[in-house]
Amino acid sequence: MDNVGKARTLAVLLPAALLGGAYVSQYGFGLFPCEMCWWQRYPHFAAIALGLVAFVAKPPRVWVALAGFAIITSGLIGGFHAGVEYHWWEGITACSKPQIGVDITDFAAAPLIRCDVAPWTLFGISLAGFNFLISTLGGAAVVALAAYRK
Fold this sequence. Notes:
The protein is mainly alpha-helical. The chain has helices spanning about 5-30, 35-55, 60-85, 125-150; strands at about 120, 125.
């Protein structure tokens, strides 16, 4: 397999694996996503689509590079989210601020998943932190393989 073929495959498999992990943690372990978690998923969906387009559209390097940039975008959102979870800076959404005036007797209301609390960590790294590490390093690899290697 040539470098473009490897990059196309990585551009599809990397975001698919990260989304798969997110859905396993959500439905298998009850770690429901907050608003910022969803923000990280959207670029991965786009990356999968762009990576698949790279298998059929010309020139494939352009589509793979776009997929790589989408993966990196998700990673950067994950880095911002991890910073909110670690309280390095404040979040920009309502899910990272204390809720005032919430009616706790309204059982029909959807539960608020906090953006500033990491529901799970491994070695002190949250899921958003792992997305940052994997997506930025892996996404950079996709872009490099697609754009710079002949």
